[in-house]
Sequence to fold (476 residues):
Amino acid sequence: MTALFMATLDNQIVATALPTIVGEFGQMERFGWIGSAYLLATCAVMPLYGKLGDLFGRKYVMIAAVTIFTLGSIACGLAVSMNTLIAARVLQGLGGGGIMVSIFSINADLFEPHERARYQSYSSLVLMASGAVGPVLGGTMSDLFGWRSIFLINIPIGIAVLAGLFIFLPYRRPTRRPTIDYAGALLLAAAVTCVVLLGDGAELFGSLFSLGSLAIAALGVVCTTAWVLVERRAPEPIVPLTLFRNPTFSLMLVISLASGAVGIGMVNYFALYLQTTTGLTPSLAGMLFIMLTGGIVCGSLTAGRLISLSGRYKPFAIVSASLTVIALLIFTQIQPGTPLYLICAIMALHGIGIGFGQQVPIVAVQNIASRGDVGAATGAVTLSRMGGASIAISIYGAIIAAGLARGTTAIPGIADIEKLTPLVLSTLPEATRQLVAQSYTAAFLPLFLTAGGISLIALTAAISLKAARLPQKPAA
Fold:
């Protein structure tokens, strides 16, 4: 659980420190890649780590993942430019994906079925705790010790986790030798990478219709086609194509993609938005995230209990997408000077919307999949959520960079608006801060509309679901 907390915290803790990092290195167009690179690497290796654990045992696979993550944290803390930081985040993600996959498999190895649910709930609480603590901790450490401290803090934690794994975690020699679908995993990772690069094509290649962008799009189509052909013949495919025969599975992948794009992908941008338009310090901006994560926890716990009682999940998917659309549309109306309590209320509403739909895709696909495909179906939903977040972060970053380049007028005393850290911003005259806030507000308007459009797609998919009912437990 300590390893899981470390890996999941890393995606949240960096959110409130990102404006400070961009202020030091510049290159606003690369802002999104700090989060996107980590998520992309994470979802690329998730299928492989699950199979490697089956092949070699969980203990040494988990130790390898924690080691890679810790080395990646050191590289992040020592980064000298935006490019080196992004490369280090990829290394972190290669370890973080293994930690997140391995922990749930280790629970299954260590505990009997009647005990397992209790320990899985502990792991779920760790996920929620990292989401609640991350932005606050990231902002506070960035203010007190500098942004590098949020990565270097992982070194002592990683060493303690490795020592604990070596001493306490038993080694279970696997009895089953699964066939690893390496080709399927690599082709799927390549296809997702192409989509992410295409989302940032305007910044990387100058235009979405440039030769570079078209080449990436063509490569993505080739990788996707090859992946389908490989999965048809693989003995143990990453995602069994038979699952797509049920329309509920396809619709749940759409909902999960949108959930990742809006629920995870927006976190970094909320932090930037709060610090540039309201003038909050990283630590105070982190405090506002308590409303968002508190809403997610309340919505998730409430929905989980109601789904168990009613056996129906479709209404919760509809409510989740509807609340998210409403919250994002309200965000388009916020202007500099809006009272903080109103922003807190909107963030809480957005969190409740995300929380209401958080469990729906996994519950739904596990209900429709055969016993042998439950693991693959669950993994596909998790991958689509992380992939949606990774793709959306790149798209959002391109939108913000284009908005600032297009809409920023000459602001007195500001040579480069992208290099304004929250600390520098707080020292500027009030009139200058207002002009900066207006520039960022205008740049964020198309981002909120884009996220709202993604949520509208999820709402359409939720309405299209069949009104299925989960199997109920027999009476005692």
Q: What stands out?
A: The chain has three domains: 1-178, 182-234, 242-471. The mean pLDDT is 78. The domain at 1-178 is CATH 1.20.1250.20 (Growth Hormone; Chain: A;). The CA atoms of residues 25 and 405 lie 17 Å apart.
